[in-house]
Amino acid sequence: MVLETSRKDLRGGGAGVNVFLTGASGFLGSRVLSRLLADGRRVAVLLRPSSDLWRISQNLDAVTPVMGDLKEPASYAEALARFEPDTLIHLAWWGVQNQHRNDPRQVANLGATLAILEKAAASGVHHFIGLGSQAEYGPSKNVIDENALTRPTTVYGVTKLATGLLGGQFCCRAGIRFAWLRIFSSYGAGDDPSWLIPSTTLSLLRGERPALTKGEQLWDFIHVDDVAAAICAVAGTAGAAGVFNVGSGTVATIRSIVEQLRDLVAPGAPLGFGELPYRADQVMHLQADIKRLTTATGWKPGISLAEGLQQTVEWFREHRDRYN
Question: Going from the N-terminus, what domains does the chain have, and what CATH number goes with each?
């Protein structure tokens, strides 16, 4: 699905570009917010009253806060229109953790996305960047490009796929540039402790022996700062439209990644490989073809896995009390 546009390239537009950002307080959204501000963008962020703002506390004075809830469009519609954004970057999504991947409530994300798209279109938005997922593809034994078959195995993956398809159709009818970024496995400082890299790091920092699968999976991990750079590159390139994979383009075994973490945290510490079974839908090979994104925007990953893991371990070592 490729939707072309002849709109002027936004790079170099600096502070003249107004961006409405959802999910700003999250792991990825906080990095995107920092990059947008550094690029001179004027940014409004949608925040729930219950949002934990620790990741963006240093940027709150530089943004226009909009208090509201995606599930209740009336709560943000007036402020969205008043801000007059030309770009909507939609990162917010309920239920990204593994325990929610097959929760029927995932479907509410579809309605919430279409609702904010409708309000944004009425407010004059010309560019929409939404967050998809590698889960839309389902299991694959090959490197995955954007033309690969989509066979999601979770409610999360199905809902992401449906949201991208319907969002793309809406934007096409409304004359809005549509970009849907399918993110592969991201990691970095401040990540949710339920994921492999932070959970293993924290376990090792506590002197525990982490229980693991055999670790034979080949996965494509990309540093969160590289993902944020990709999102901002797409936002700033008016010709970048359609579906894009965002990954490192390379793979490493889970075993080798965990061993690197162990060597950074506690060299020689025992690891419980093989103590956990693979899930029935375990993905054994996850690797993104990123040529389309690189060609469209010039973006490339800039942080190696070794460098990124070291930065991540150092951050969790310094902030581990937050996760006690």
Answer: 15-186+223-246 (3.40.50.720), 188-219+250-292+302-319 (3.90.25.10)
Q: What is the pLDDT of residue 5?
A: 35
- Tell me how many degrees the CA angle 267-270-275 measures, rounded to the nearest 5: 145
* 130 in Cβ contact with 158 (< 8 Å): no
Give the span between the Cα atoms of 47 and 34, in whole angstroms.
Answer: 16
Q: pLDDT value at position 281? A: 84
Give the C-alpha separation, 37 to 258, whole Å. 34
pLDDT in tens, 24-45: 999 999 999 999 999 999 999 9
Residue ranges of the chain with per-residue pLDDT less than 70 = 1-16
pTM: 0.94
User: CA torsion sign, 277 to 280 to 281 to 283?
Assistant: positive
Distance set, CA 30 to CA 42, 145, 151 (Å): 15, 27, 30
Beta bridge partners of 173: none
For 227, half-sphere exposure in the C-beta direction (CA atoms, 13 angstrom radius) is: 28
The three-state secondary structure class of 126 is: coil
Contact 159, 133 (CB under 8 A): no
